[in-house]
Each structure stands twice: as structure tokens, then as C-alpha cells.
């Protein structure tokens, strides 16, 4: 596989994962505006770890986490591809955002469909392992 293809795949994976967090924000908004309608397995935000949070506060906390994750992963993708964000920023952005996303997933586990939760956790773990464990991708591949 060419270096250019690897760059495209990594950029796309980070961007799509970030945009996926936008789906969680949209689901929270939908549930808030149209309670009681079919949401395909999405539920109002509630935290098993912080059960005393009101519905509004839980929704606000979850929304902030998902918006931060959306922005962070899209910024990491832009940094990786060298567009609008300094190239050296993509690694810390991706790692910090993966942790933020995982915190949100753990706080609100059971709120989202199992597939979405497992997929997001898997992507977050993959990002952290690749960045922290393997130092992927090699700098020579990135032309830096």
C-alpha cells in the first residue's frame, strides 16, 4: 500500500470517527425535541457513575464531551493531512480526544446502542495503541 493511501486512510478514519460523535449530539438533540419517538436504540443521556445528574445536566455534559470529541478528531485529521492545523498537533489532539471520548463512553455507557459503543471504544483504543504504543505512523512515512 502506498504512503499516500495510508495517509488517506488515517485521515479518513480520524475524520469519520470525529463526525460520528456528531451523530451522538444529533441523537441527544432529537431525543430532547421529540421525546418518546423511535430513536433506534439511542436513549436520553444518563450516567451510571453519576446517577444524581438531572436529565438536563446529563445531556449537557454528554453534549460537551461529544462536541469536544467531534472537534478534536476532525482537527487531528486536518493536522495529519496538513490542512488548517499544524502538522505536529495531530498526535496530541488524537490522543487527548480519544481519552475524552472514552471518558464519555464510560460515563454514559448504556445510553447508546451497543454497536456504536463498541465501535467507538475500539477506534479510541486503536488510536491510543497506534500513537502511544507503536508510534504509528512512522515519521518517514509522513514526510516529516
**Main sheet summary:** none
Instruction: Classify the beta-strand content into a percent band.
Output: under 5%
Which H/E pattern describes the elements? HHHHH
Overall form? elongated
Average pLDDT confidence is: 85
Count of individual helical segments: 5
Structural class based on helices, strands and sheet pairing? mainly alpha
Total number of distinct structural domains: 1
Helix content: 55-70%
Rg, Cα atoms, Å? 16 Å
SSE blueprint:
Blueprint: H1 3-33, H2 55-81, H3 90-107, H4 114-133, H5 139-142
Helix pairs in contact: 1-2, 2-3, 3-4
Walk me through the structure.
- By secondary structure, the chain is mainly α.
- The protein has one domain.
- It is built from 5 helices and no strands.
- The protein has helices at residues 3-33, 55-81, 90-107, 114-133, 139-142.
